[in-house]
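Before surveying the methods themselves, let us examine one representative protein, pairing a chain with its fold in token form.
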Amino acid sequence: MHNSNSSSLTPTFFILNGVPGLEAAHGWISFPFCSMYLIAVLGNSGLLYLIRHEESLHRPMYYFLALLSFTDVALCTTTVPNMLCIFWFNLKEITFNACLVQMFFVHMLTGMESGVLMLMALDRYVAICYPLRYTTILTNSVIAKAGFITFLRGVMLIIPFTFLSKRLPYCQGNIIPHTYCDHMSVAKVSCGNVKVNAIYGLMVALLIGVFDICCISVSYTMILRAVVSLSSADARHKAFSTCTSHICAIVITYVPAFFTFFTHRFGGNTIPHHIHIIVANLYLLLPPTMNPIVYGVKTKQIREGVIKILFGEKSVLA
């Protein structure tokens, strides 16, 4: 099971144990996760198709939404098929290198999602505070560069996770009590000193999560000041309504993310492990599932685009 050298013990594979303590209920647990995954893939793929083919949605706000949808599909696809194989077929083995690859994509894509939410907050700030310069500030070139920088930030900050995990000795076994490989779950299997891993994980959380939340908070503070200064109640309502979908997406993303982050480091024995694992899965599945629903319900242009594609343009004009 292990290949050893002078400095470490490296397992050829890990065993992902699913949801510890609820093994007998894996079949039942799989159905809501499978349903959420199908909704996420269909909903986000539908949004991508709609944004690409509907000219009225060729605007910065919807380009960022398309980037969020693409990230969401990639994120849940990184983990859910493997998770369902554990639940349905008891296929728990994952090679060491495949585990590191999955770990990289999970953290890189969650960082990407956080970064896109930050860009969407900046988009709303420009749209509300500088409406006449909106299209000249957020050009296609600026949007592409912002998306690439967000992607590059995630890649550069997450790559060290794989090297930090690979250097650890795994002499306590190879069983990971989780449904997918994430940094701290893998590190906790090691018998080595994981202090560097924990410190670097905290630093990445600050550089991505806390930085993005600060930018979002500043953006919405400026938006609130601008909206309150408007004299017309209708104008204030219209300005606020353009932000409601994004605010819902922020809450859906960050609440389970913070729960997962803090329980990993400070939860100890106070929170049952199966609760932590289920929330960690919801952290990856809930935003991709809910974002297309939220934007579909809250955004008039998307609703009209869906009706136009399904029933023809006459239905929209009726």
